[in-house]
Amino acid sequence: MAITRQDLEADRLRTTLCSTPVASSLLSDADVERSLRQTLSHRPELPGLDGDVWVFGYGSLIWNPMVVHTESRLATVHGYHRGFYLYSRINRGTWDNPGLVLGLDRGGCCTGMVFRIPAHVVEQEFRVLWRREMMTGAYHPRWLRVKLDEDPAAPAQRALAFVMNRDHASYAGRLPDARVVACLQHACGLYGPAREYLHQTLLGLATHGVDDPYLARLWRQLQDCDAAEAGAAACPVATPRAVSATVATCPDDALAATTHPHETV
Fold first, then answer.
1. What are the φ and ψ backbone dihedral angles of 134, each rounded to 5 degrees?
2. Could you say which of 54, 71, 124, 234 would form a disulfide bridge with 114 (CB–CB 3.0 to 4.6 Å)?
3. Active-site annotation holds for 133
4. Angstrom distances, CA of residue 149 to CA of 12, 152, 158, 165
């Protein structure tokens, strides 16, 4: 099921999910609207933008913003960093085999993209964003201070960003690389495979000249696990050497997470 902007405008995703077992994890329409209104009420007045606002993307928004915008630029947020901190049981996984998606968590810094939303469509475009990012309340919408990378002398701006809600049931915390890779390798949800989410984010950043060592490291480890699985499939009778190679490439906790996905729920 490919999710389009038209699906979000018509709120089709919520309508579909309300008749499934995940319905209990969704915020009510009233809660979603309340969150949207509160965020709009704190909308900053930024000099030189004539009422326009910035939205900061650090994951899928980089390569698939889906919102009307008149400008996009590289920008850096200080005080938050990007990591696979949110179990995904709808978009990039299922309840039986959860994937992971990115969230902003405290500490460090994060380079991503900001998108300039015209003043006259801010509420319309934010509603699309809320239907995409705020269905379960896993994020807190925040107006963060950002530095536009292409103009280091310019004063800091403020941009809307979705940061981790650490109290949410799907908050994963800081997982070892092996567990992250195990969750990304085979999980797939309504938006597609979890591994595609990682790959597209890497490509989106690289297109703008940004190297993220953390994401690149995970991608290399994911490919190593793929190679180990392919080798095991080509040689179904596992020799001690083959078993040792597989364990060395995919450590015990990664293998356990793949075999017993409920342990990550």
1. -115, 20
2. 54
3. yes
4. 37, 6, 14, 27
Three-state DSSP state, 214: helix
Measured distance CA(77)–CA(146) in Å, rounded: 5
Q: Residue range 177-199: average pLDDT?
A: 96
Record the tokens describing residue 219, joined without a space: 């991608």
Could you tell me the pTM of the whole model?
0.85
Q: Average pLDDT for residues 74-98, to the nearest whole number? A: 95
In the chain the domains, ranked by start, together with CATH numbers, are 5-264 (3.10.490.10)
Contact 1, 190 (CB under 8 A): yes
Q: Kindly report, residue by residue over 20-77, the tens digit of the pLDDT.
A: 778 888 999 999 999 999 999 999 998 889 999 999 999 999 999 999 999 999 999 9
User: Has residue 180 got a pLDDT over 50?
Assistant: yes
Rounded to an integer, the average pLDDT of 90-107 is 95
Q: Within a 13 Å sphere around the CA of 113, how many CA atoms are in the beta-carbon half?
A: 24
Residue that has been written with the tokens 């994060």 in this structure: 110
Q: How far apart are CA 219 and CA 166, in angstroms?
A: 25
84 with 172: CB under 8 angstroms? Answer: yes
List the alpha helices (DSSP H) in the chain: 5-9, 12-17, 29-41, 60-63, 122-133, 177-186, 194-207, 213-234, 240-249, 252-259
Measuring CA to CA, which residue among 206, 213, 217, 192 is closest to residue 113? 206
Catalytic residue among 123, 125, 133, 150, which?
Answer: 133
